Input
Amino acid sequence: MAKLDTPGRTYLKEFAAAMLAYFVVLPVSIVVIQHHAHVWWRFPVALAPLIPLLLLLRAIVRFFRRLDELQRRIQLDALAFAFAGSALLTFTYGLLENVGFPRLSYGYVWSVMGVLCIGTAVAKRRYR
Output
């Protein structure tokens, strides 16, 4: 297994911390909302998981700022692939919903984008 460079290690630490916080805050938020369905503060509680996601966004931006030009190019290629592929797949599925496929949550879009980040491996091979 290849040793990660400093930007990669730092990013993984920041990413892991943000995701851990998200995986703690999200279920707590859902449970609190289910038990207090008619109180005014359910809206801020429902949005509480956005705080760890903002930390995740911060980690991603910091990761890109730490990269050299070639690594940025590789990541840009991978993101372009993930973005365009996700758009194509989700649009296609949306059309299939018109003929009876079950409706899916928008939350699945992130899963599709995550899987399509395999574009990073393709982009790295391209620049060898």
